[in-house]
Each structure stands twice: as structure tokens, then as C-alpha cells.
């Protein structure tokens, strides 16, 4: 396993609770849209065994052509030790990234694509949308639906949509509107549905999609193959 140590080059305050940490791109480090990585804070591998408290899975919210690795995360008032440390990190601090992989690359299969997310889950989808806007080949259109009860919506410059390029987007702040929309979108009998959020959120979305007749192989989750099957029962 290769561990890349790199530096924070910018911290963007996206909303009062959400920050994006921009990391220098280490030599030889590449990724594709939809990737997640392991973010390790200094000292995570100092002992005999790695300190899991200093490591979290994080999606990469940027594309390689943006030249920085974006990590977008919510830091609440009540926060873990990991987020405490992360919140205090300054520009120039080193962090580690390793085991980077995409379970949810953009499928170019001449289909409509619906991106369903909750809160900061939108970070996983930002690079998929940018990749599509750069090159729409073999994707009919994309629609994003994001629920965030804080109403401090994320990445609004990208997710305001570009309808003339086949990309539309909606933010909602409550479950009634959200699942009402999901039910309607599920009527598209050929489309692919990408879902990102907490496990509870995934389970609820899958239940609604399956109820409306969406087959398992049209539902994409940011899960490895073995855990994927547990969710898509
Ligand atoms: C493939 C994958 C990709 C992911 N991508 C991302 C991503 O891009 N961005 C992202 O943010 N997360 C992502 N996650 C989730 C991430 O790994 C963390 O699990 C998540 O951010 C929670 O972090 P945390 O455990 O440090 O807790 P926190 O976010 O600090 O807290 C989690 C919850 O517990 C509460 N809490 C924490 N500490 C206390 C306390 N002492 N007292 C009371 N309540 C407390 C908080 O208020 C919050 O509601 C991803 C996970 C996976 C599996």
C-alpha cells in the first residue's frame, strides 16, 4: 500500500459547517471521478498498529484537471477527535492519503442518470457532474437531487445546473419533497440511480426505488462489491 503525504494548500469555507481542504497533488497520484480515499492525520501510522481514530474515508470532490485534491467535510459543533484536529489544521500541514478507489465512476451507457444525495454526499457527485460537463459522450442527461435540512446548500455554482447541456439540479430541505421527487424520478424505466449518504439514507432510498420497480442493477452505491450485495437485497 502506497501512502502519499501531501500538504494542505487552501481551506475553503463552503458553508458555516462545511469546509473543503485542498491538498497538493503528489507526484504519481491519480484518481477518477467518484473516488474516495483514506485521509490520515499526522501520527496515524506512528505506532505498531495504525490509529483508526486518525483516519477517515473521504470522497474526492475535485477532478484531476483542477490540480488539487479536494476533501469536503462537515464539521459540527459536537465533533469527533478527528474533526477537532482537522478543523485546527493550517495551510501547509501534512496529511496522508492512501487506498484511493472509485466505486461510482460515471457510466457512459447512453442513459439518463439521477444523482441522489444527502448533505455533504454531494461532494462525491461534484466530479461526476464536472466530468459530464467536460464531455457528455454516451450520457443522455444528468439530474441531481440533494436534501439538506440546514439549507446551506453546497457547491451551488456547479449545482445551479446547466439545462442547455442536459444537467439539472434541485436542492430540498425536507424528506417529504425529497422522497416525492425520488418516486417521480423512479418512473424513468431506463435510468441509472446513484445514491450517496449515510447507510440509513441508502437503505431508505433503495426501499423507495425498489418499491417503484427500479431493478438492483440500475442502483449505484459507493460501496465495495461485497457490501453492495448486503444493501441491495
Ligand atoms: C466511501 C465513503 C466516502 C465518504 N466520503 C465522505 C466525505 O466526502 N465527506 C465526509 O464528511 N464524510 C465522508 N464519509 C464519512 C466519513 O468517513 C465519516 O464517517 C464522517 O465524516 C463522520 O466523521 P466523524 O466520525 O469524524 O464524526 P463527526 O462528523 O465529527 O460526528 C458524527 C456525528 O456524531 C456526533 N458527535 C461526534 N462527536 C460527538 C460527541 N463527542 N458528543 C456528541 N455527539 C458527537 C456529531 O454531531 C455528528 O452528528 C465517507 C464515508 C465513506 C464510507
What does this entry look like structurally?
It comes from Salinicoccus halodurans. GO terms for molecular function: dioxygenase activity. InterPro entries: FAD-bd_FR_type, FNR_nucleotide-bd, Riboflavin_synthase-like_b-brl. The protein contains six helices and eleven strands. By secondary structure, it is α/β, with parallel strands linked by helices. The chain has two domains: 4-102, Elongation Factor Tu (Ef-tu), domain 3; 111-231, Nucleotide-binding domain of ferredoxin-NADP reductase (FNR) module (Rossmann fold, 3-Layer(aba) Sandwich). The protein has a six-stranded antiparallel β-sheet with strand order 4-3-6-1-2-5, with no helix packed on it. Strands 9-8-7-10-11 form a five-stranded parallel β-sheet, sandwiched between helices. Strand 1 (4-13) and strand 2 (18-24) form a beta hairpin. The model has no long low-confidence stretch (mean pLDDT 96). The protein binds flavin-adenine dinucleotide. The site of flavin-adenine dinucleotide has 17 residues, from strand 4, strand 5 and helix 1.
Amino acid at each position: 500500500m502506497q501512502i502519499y503525504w501531501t500538504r494542505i494548500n487552501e481551506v475553503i469555507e463552503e458553508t458555516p459547517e462545511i469546509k473543503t481542504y485542498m491538498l497538493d497533488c503528489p507526484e504519481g497520484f491519480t484518481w477518477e471521478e467518484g473516488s474516495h480515499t483514506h485521509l490520515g492525520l499526522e501520527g496515524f501510522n506512528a505506532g505498531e498498529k495504525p490509529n483508526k481514530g486518525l483516519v477517515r474515508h473521504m470522497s474526492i470532490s475535485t477532478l484531476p484537471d483542477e490540480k488539487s485534491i479536494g476533501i469536503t467535510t462537515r464539521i459540527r459543533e459536537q465533533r469527533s477527535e478527528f474533526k477537532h484536529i482537522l478543523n485546527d489544521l493550517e495551510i501547509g500541514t501534512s496529511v496522508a492519503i492512501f487506498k484511493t478507489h472509485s466505486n461510482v465512476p460515471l457510466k457512459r451507457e447512453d442513459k439518463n442518470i439521477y444523482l441522489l444525495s444527502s448533505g455533504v454526499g454531494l461532494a462525491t457527485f461534484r466530479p461526476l457532474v464536472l466530468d459530464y460537463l467536460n464531455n457528455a459522450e454516451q450520457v443522455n442527461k444528468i439530474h441531481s437531487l440533494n436534501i439538506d435540512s440546514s439549507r446551506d446548500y453546497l457547491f451551488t455554482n456547479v449545482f445551479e445546473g446547466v439545462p442547455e447541456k442536459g444537467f439539472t439540479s434541485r436542492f430540498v430541505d425536507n424528506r417529504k419533497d425529497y422522497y416525492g421527487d425520488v418516486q417521480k424520478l423512479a418512473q424513468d424505466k431506463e435510468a441509472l440511480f446513484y445514491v450517496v449518504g449515510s447507510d440509513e439514507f441508502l437503505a431508505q432510498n433503495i426501499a423507495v426505488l425498489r418499491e417503484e420497480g427500479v431493478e438492483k442493477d440500475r442502483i449505484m452505491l459507493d460501496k465495495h462489491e461485497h457490501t453492495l450485495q448486503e444493501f441491495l437485497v
